[in-house]
C-alpha cells in the first residue's frame, strides 16, 4: 500500500477516534423534560409536555393520585409555554412526592435533577396546584404551578390502588 494511502487511513482513524472520544456521554447530554421522562419511565407519549395529558387518553390510565413510576403533567403557562413533566420516584404523603425531572429552573437548563420534592397545595388535595422544591433558594417558594394530574404506566397500580409510601416503610 502506498505511503500516502497509509497516512490517509491513519489520519482518518485518528480523527474518528478523537471525535468519538470527545463526544458527550448520555450523562453529559443536555436534556429537556420530555425525552428525559420518556427515557426513565414506562410511558411513551408524544408531543410537548403540556400535550401529554390529552395524548395519553385511551392509552394510559390517568388520575389525581401519585404513584411511583407515574408522570406528573404540568399545564402550560406564560412562563412554561411547553408545560413540564416529572417522573414520580416516591410518594411521601398524600401531599408530598419525590420526582426526577430535567430542565427545571433558571441555571438548570438541560440538567437532570433527581430526588426533588413537590408538594400539593390545591384546596381539594387533588394535585391540580403544586409547588416545586428549588435547591438554589432551599425552599418551595411562592410560585404555584398548575397540573393536570398523573399518567400511570401500564404495569403500575391504578389510581384507585396507588399506595402511599411513608419514610422508613
TrEMBL record:
Claim: Signal is one of the keywords in the record: yes
Signal peptide limits: 1-28
Pfam families according to UniProt: CHAP (PF05257)
Top-level division of the source organism's lineage: Bacteria
Residue stretches making up the Peptidase C51 domain: 8-136
Protein name (record): CHAP domain-containing protein
Gene source species: Insolitispirillum peregrinum
InterPro entries membership: CHAP_dom, Papain-like_cys_pep_sf
Listed Gene3D superfamilies: endopeptidase domain like (from Nostoc punctiforme)
Keywords: Signal
Amino acid at each position: 500500500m502506498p505511503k500516502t494511502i497509509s497516512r490517509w487511513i491513519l489520519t482518518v482513524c485518528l480523527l474518528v477516534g478523537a471525535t468519538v472520544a470527545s463526544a458527550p456521554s448520555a450523562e453529559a447530554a443536555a436534556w429537556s423534560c420530555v425525552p428525559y421522562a420518556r427515557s426513565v419511565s414506562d410511558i411513551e407519549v408524544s408531543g410537548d409536555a403540556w400535550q401529554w395529558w390529552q395524548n395519553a387518553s385511551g392509552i394510559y390510565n390517568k388520575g389525581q393520585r401519585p404513584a411511583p413510576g407515574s408522570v406528573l403533567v404540568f399545564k402550560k403557562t406564560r412562563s412554561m409555554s411547553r408545560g413540564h413533566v416529572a417522573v414520580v420516584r416516591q410518594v411521601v404523603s398524600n401531599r408530598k412526592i419525590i420526582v426526577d425531572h430535567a430542565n427545571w429552573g433558571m441555571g438548570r437548563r438541560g440538567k437532570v435533577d433527581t430526588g426533588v420534592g413537590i408538594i400539593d397545595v390545591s384546596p381539594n388535595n387533588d394535585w391540580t396546584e403544586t409547588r416545586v422544591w428549588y435547591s438554589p433558594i432551599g425552599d418551595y417558594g411562592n410560585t404555584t404551578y398548575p397540573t393536570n394530574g398523573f399518567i400511570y404506566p401500564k404495569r403500575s397500580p391504578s389510581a384507585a390502588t396507588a399506595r402511599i409510601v411513608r419514610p422508613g416503610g
